[in-house]
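Here we describe the complex-level prediction in full. Unlike the single-chain runs in Section 2.1, the two entities below were treated as one system.
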Amino acid sequence: MNIETSPIALIVEDEPQIRRFVRMALEGEGWQVHQSETLKRGLIDAGTRTPDLIILDLGLPDGDGIQLIRDVRTWSPVPIVVLSARIDESDKITALDAGADDYLTKPFGIGELLARVRAALRRQHKAGGEASAVFSFGKVAVDLHKRRVERAGEAVHLTPTEYKLLSVLLANVGRVVTAPQLLREVWGPSNADNGHYVRIYMGHLRQKLEDDPAQPRHLLTETAVGYRLQP
Amino acid sequence: MAYHAGMSMFRPSQESNDARPLAKVAAGAGVSLLTAAVGLPLLPLLDLVNVAVLFLLAVVLVAIRLGRAPAAAASLVAFCALVLAAHPADASGFGPGEFRYAVALAVMLAVGWITARLTASLRAQAEGAVRREARTRALYEFARALQPALLTGQVFEITLRFAERTFDARGAVLLPDAAGRLGLPARDAGMPVLSVLDMAAAQWAYDHASAAGAGTATLPGNQYVYLPLSAPMRTRGVLALRLPAHSLPAAPEQRGLLDAFAALAAIALERVHYVEVAQDTEVKMEGERLRNSLLAALSHDLRTPLTGLVGLSESLTLSRPPLQGGQMELATALRDEARRMSTLVANLLDMARIQSGGVRLNLQWQLVEELVGSALRACRWQLGARRIETQMPAALPLVRFDATLLERVLCNLLENAGKYTPPDARITIAADADLEAGVLRLRVLDDGPGLPPGREDALFEKFVRGRQESPIAGVGLGLAICRAIVEAHGGRMRAFNLEEGGACFELELPLGEPPPLPAADIAESQET
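The structure predicted for the assembly as a whole is:
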């Protein structure tokens, strides 16, 4: 493996066993991995190693991982995947709104980890290149220029609000968009308390675009955090 | 006078005022006789008019000191003495010449009467001022005594002590229970015994927040007067006082004093109540904080090694070159057990959080379909090849619940289904809204062997009873937490066997009034 060209990942996590298997998983995929045990070390490594990916534990012994997200986001769009406990939904939302790309709830599987990492990288490459006007997921095709949505070749009528919601999800395809962010972008900043709007309209979208709305394959719910459009 | 008399500190002066009027009259006459004894021998030196002025002085003094009747007696004696002095020889003969003495008599009577009246009214005013001052002082001292009281018992003790001192009254403070029924605080042996009738009168005073009993318009025949302890927030109780007959609250001034007294006690009770509330809250908050930090630390300490275990065992299954058959099986089993263990720990921690009352539900208006979807996505792996069906009407109302916790309920039910049904079983998740009963019903059904008959409800209780040995290990905790979560939402949960075979777990969540959509969006949804 050529060290010069392999991408660099930074793991900021205080628990050696978790670091160990995350490192093994990433190395198996051809990453060059650096590890930091503390927030302070992580901040330094993020600056000096110029990683292509950061895996960040939110609960570090010397501070809150969110600090690192805010700091890194001032100068770099590097994908950040956050590791967090199950009950800390508000932490996840804060981390995502601060600029994290994705999160994994502990305990998490390696398959999940690698899928999130790949998705984050794909998004970044896409952001660098030409933005595509035509998206497709499952049987659904969306043409953003013509504002046209088709399912299995047939046109689907979406209301303006539904279309707006779908387009925000498409702009973040593969990534969790928090419910507060969706509310802000679709309904405006004064609707932060109306979380049920998002849920109702996500329901409409699922009814129109999913085969089985109760077992969605693309318009996924991240419980108590937000939504993800899974291509 | 009745009210002032009630103040025990004035009882001696009241008695001296009413003492023996006849003796006073005699004393008045005596003063004039004394004046005559002193003045008449001076007659040769002085003019008669001057001596008459001496008598007038005596009458004025008597009027000031002793009042009207003694002054009149003194005037009469003085008149007789003057007549005798002027005509010692002919005492019986009152000619027209003696008319001037009659004038002198009239003047003396008038002066005596006017002086006595002025004096009496001055004295009454002075006494009134003293009484008002004493009353203010009594209230002030009462207020000051109440100030440092921090316990309800102290307020009672001080109130009753001052009631005795100020009104010469014995009594009791009656406090309401949670339902607003008054009861005697069972603490003081010297407390008077109140009959059922007395308690009814007290209850009336409490309910109507106005005084009842002796000397009031309501139940004046009762031997107690019942004063409601009305504080700014609410009526805190009733003060029952047995007043001496002479100090019944008929007079407005007495009523005023009693009301002020009761108001002071009420405010003190309310203050003490809020002190207790504040202390309780502080203790509760401290307890909650401690519990939460303990649980957070515990959950972190348990989850961290489990995360390592899950990840490392999975790394083993993915290692290259791939493991040999038997090793691979072991590694896979290791990974699955680690995952199960972490579910168990999550359940355990949730249970601890809910049972300790430390859980704050994150209640939001949710779509049931979304809950089912995310639960299936999280727990699908535990169901293997079993077929999964969802039966959900498209127009289910929004329901208010904590999505994370309800997802745990569904996951536990699905996990159970995965454990206790054959691998080719069919699992159905069905939801419907029962608008009549006002509940949303969510069911997880299977076509497996069903539940042990007669023990359907016991399944939920296992954990609560703490009986750890069970023929179906693991069920207790999962279902116990399900029921705890559903009940924390005001819902119910039960399990039963289906007629056609298989088990059914059913949970009901209360339906509420979902919040509206913005007007523009309603128009929009009607358009589709």
